[in-house]
Every structure is written in C-alpha cells, then in structure tokens.
Design goal:
This protein has 380 residues and is α+β, with helices and mostly antiparallel strands. Among the domains are: 52-84 and 109-177, no CATH class; 197-265 and 306-380, Muramoyl-pentapeptide Carboxypeptidase, domain 2. Helix content is 38%, strand content 14%. The strands form 5 sheets. The protein has a 5-stranded mixed beta sheet, with helices on both faces. Strands 1-2 form a two-stranded antiparallel ribbon. The termini are far apart. Residues 92-96 and 187-195 have low confidence and may be disordered.
C-alpha cells in the first residue's frame, strides 16, 4: 500500500529532518569536546566501559577479601594453638620482644606455672581469656596480609580495625577504601612462575607524575605506583618525592629498583597504634607505657623524633625483597644508592637512621641537619 504526502506532510518531514540533524550535530560536537578531556589513548565510550570494568574489579576484590578472611581465621587459630595462644609482636633488630612472663616450654607459651618453694608450691596462672582478644586479631591480620599481597591488584594491608565476637568471630572495619583507577591500565603481576618480575627498568617520569596526586594537605600521593610497595600507602612532601625520583633513577643504573613501604604517617594513625586500635594491640599487650615505648612511639611525647609526621622520611627496600630477605650487602647498596643521590647544592639527598637500615630522611629534618653538619650520612 502506498501513501501520498501532501504539502503539509512534506513540510513536517522536512522540519523533523532538520531537528534530528541539529540534535545529532550537537551531540557529536559535545562528545568530540569531551573526547579531548580523556587521557591519551582513550576513545568515546571508553569512559563508560572503564566504569563498568572498575565496578567489576571492585566487586572481585571485595569477594577476594571476604574469602581470604575465612581462610585466614582458620589458619590463625591453628597458628595460635601451636604457640600456646600467644603471638609475639615483630620488632626491629634494635628492639627486643618484652616476652611472656611465664616463658615457653617446648616452643609453646606456658599457661600455668608451678614452682616449688621449700615445703610449699607456688602457682601462677599466666593465661586468661582476654589473651584471645589480644593475640587472635594480630596473627589474623598477618595472615590476611599475605593473601592481600598476592592479589593481582593493589589492596591496602593493615587496613582494618578488628572487633572480636565470642573469641572466634572477627569483624573488620576498613579504614581506607579499595581504590580502582578508572583510566589507569593496570598491569597484572605474573605469579605463574612463583616469582614476581622485579627487573629494574627506566622510570617513566611523565607517566609516574600522572599516576600521583597532590592532596590538600600538600603531600604527593604515589600509592599504587612502582615506587610504592604493594598494599602500602605512600605520601611524601613534594621535595622528598622529587629526591626519591632521583634516587630511583640511580638505583636503576645500579641494577635494582626501589620501593617505599612507609612515608608520611598522620598523627591519627600514630595515635591509633599507641592506643591499641590496630591489629598489633600494643596498648592491650603492654599496658605499661614505659614498656610500650619499646615498640611504638607515644604521639604525645615523640616530637621531632616522629619524623614520619613531616612527610620527609621513608622506610624503603629493594623491589622483590622484604626486610627479612634483605642481606647485609643489600642494605649497604641501598644506603649507597640513597646517600650518593645529591641535592641541588651538592649535599646528600638522604641520610640514614643508624638503628634502622631501612629508614632514611631528607629535607632538613633534625636528624638530617645534624648529619650534614657532621659530614656523615648515617646518624642516630
């Protein structure tokens, strides 16, 4: 069947044609303008696809965390049972574990002690139910971290405040969110060989600069980049960050790669450590502040010694290593790499804290200034 259009019909179709043409033209130029705002290499539609992809990654990460928590809890109960229900807080080489007042027997901590005292026997109960609340979250957090560090993408570790319910149920509240960069094309780590690719490569300063942000507090955030250890949060002042870039380039020439494990630390974080609100449970484990100082600094007393507050101090190691696997040769090479880096006035970019081979400072911290004045690169 055919229809014939009169003059009014042709006029209506003509008007509709121009309206549609105007709409499509406007939409085209609008998208074309937005296209110029996208990162290099992205096309129209990539933003929407990236949002969907980021959502899927986020859901996968949360599912992975939930499953990891289940396995970690079972492993933690087993680990604590082997040691008698007590977990030792890991400390640096410069510190000594305060120990457990009743000691160990055959590798396990003693719960009940009987000692002969002449004709009498002195008894002492060393273990109470409250130890579960102290020790289980700590060992659980350690086991959970192992899973999180093996995930393909970056998930913050040491990121939960734990609440123990009924001794064997743990509720964890995250302090930081899992960040998924919508536009950054992340490279998955290859675990098929059982080792990570840690071959040093020249730094792409331009790309690294894109992957960092400048928070309102004035710190450069390079969390999730090659210069920040996986699972850690890394912030430094702009001056310290630029010196770190110089040292990273020196390291590549020496055949190694640097990774920061700790930079700026907020007073709130330090306070949480001191008050026992983290998995270490310092306050619960060591109620005596004089003993607790051996493990964590008191934020109300440390003053200039809390140099991580400044954003001009770093804890650092080589990529692919942990503190436990860094050898004496590694530590010496690390120190040479950082202290041989020079500032604009030909001073050492970094000085090392003598008691910790992984800790370096720059940018006129009190320790740095004393070291430069004495002409040394390592100082207490």
């Amino acid at each position: 069947m055919r229809m014939k259009l009169g003059k009014k019909g042709w006029l209506f179709e003509g008007i509709m044609f121009f309206i549609i043409l105007i709409i499509l033209t406007t939409a085209f130029f609008s998208l074309y303008k937005k296209y110029g705002q996208f990162p290099d290499g992205y096309k129209i539609g990539d933003r929407q696809f990236s949002l969907i992809n980021a959502y899927q990654k986020g859901e996968a990460a949360l599912f992975y965390i939930d499953q990891s928590a289940k396995y970690s809890l079972g492993q933690s109960v087993y680990d604590l049972a082997k040691s008698g229900g007590v977990s030792e807080i890991e400390v640096s080489d410069a510190e000594t574990f305060a120990g457990y007042e009743c000691g160990k027997f055959n590798g396990a901590y003693v719960w009940y002690q009987i000692r002969k005292n002449g004709e009498k026997h002195d008894t002492k109960e060393c273990f109470g139910e409250n130890y579960a609340e102290i020790n289980l979250p700590y060992i659980f957090n350690k086991n959970l971290n192992k899973y999180l560090l093996n995930y393909l993408y970056n998930i913050p570790k040491d990121n939960y405040e734990f609440k123990l319910v009924g001794n064997l149920e743990i509720i964890g509240m995250a302090r930081l969110p899992v960040n998924i960069n919508i536009f950054k094309k992340e490279v998955q780590e290859d675990f098929s060989t059982g080792t990570r690719d840690v071959k040093p490569k020249p730094l792409d300063i331009k790309q690294l600069d894109k992957d960092t942000t400048k928070p309102s507090e004035g710190f450069r955030d390079f969390t999730g980049t090659d210069l920040c250890a996986k699972g850690d949060s890394c912030l430094l002042t702009e001056g310290a960050f630029q010196l770190l870039l110089k040292s990273a380039e020196v390291a590549v020439k020496k055949g190694v790669s640097l990774q920061v494990t700790n930079g700026y630390r907020s007073k709130e974080t330090q306070k949480a450590l001191w008050e026992g609100k983290t998995a270490e449970r310092y306050a619960q484990k060591y109620p005596d502040p004089a003993v607790r100082k051996r493990y964590v600094s008191n934020p109300d007393e440390c003053g200039n010694s809390c140099v991580h507050y400044s954003g001009n101090a770093i804890d650092i190691r080589f990529k692919g290593k942990t503190r436990e696997t860094m050898t004496a040769k590694d530590w010496k090479l690390l120190e040479d790499t950082l202290t041989q880096t020079k500032t604009s006035n030909n001073q050492p970019a970094w000085v090392r804290y003598s008691n910790e081979p992984w800790h370096f400072e720059c940018c006129n911290t009190p320790r740095y200034s004393r070291a430069v004045e004495k002409g040394v690169t390592s100082i207490v």
